[in-house]
Structure to design on (144 residues):
């Protein structure tokens, strides 16, 4: 039996369920909802793109082609609080719809993504490394 060169952590159905559940809740979230509503009028293409993104993240599939840092840098008012709210909601959804190892891997990867985007898009707090509650807390230079 041949093995895939990359681990497959989530099925297509699991990715779809996490993405659809998460963005369904985002739309009604008091902080995140308005941010997304200001930028997304047709959710179909966005959900398809996010499914490709999360499939690539979870399975190293290469399906996602995009520039998330550029997209997030263009969001006015982006803040650590918004990243923290996004991450808390994502963790909740991942644990609920994919209990066990798969949900934990989704959450771990979301933590890394949130931290990377925050480092790339936000200035570091004065005298402190960025911290979104991920426990990783790396020092980063502020965005130019």
């Amino acid at each position: 039996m041949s093995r895939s060169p990359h681990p497959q952590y989530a099925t297509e159905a699991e990715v779809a369920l996490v993405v659809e559940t998460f963005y369904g809740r985002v739309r009604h979230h008091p902080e995140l909802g308005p941010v997304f509503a200001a930028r997304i009028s047709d959710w179909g293409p966005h959900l398809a793109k996010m499914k490709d993104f999360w499939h690539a993240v979870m399975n190293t599939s290469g399906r996602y082609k995009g520039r998330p840092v550029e997209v997030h840098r263009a969001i006015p008012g982006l803040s650590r609080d918004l990243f923290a709210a996004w991450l808390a909601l994502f963790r909740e959804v991942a644990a609920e719809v994919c209990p066990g190892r798969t949900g934990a891997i989704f959450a771990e990867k979301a933590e890394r993504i949130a931290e990377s985007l925050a480092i790339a898009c936000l200035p570091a707090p004065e005298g402190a490394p960025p911290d979104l509650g991920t426990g990783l807390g790396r020092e980063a230079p502020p965005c130019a």
The chain has a mean pLDDT of 86. The helical segments are 12-26, 32-37, 43-59, 68-73, 80-97, 101-121.
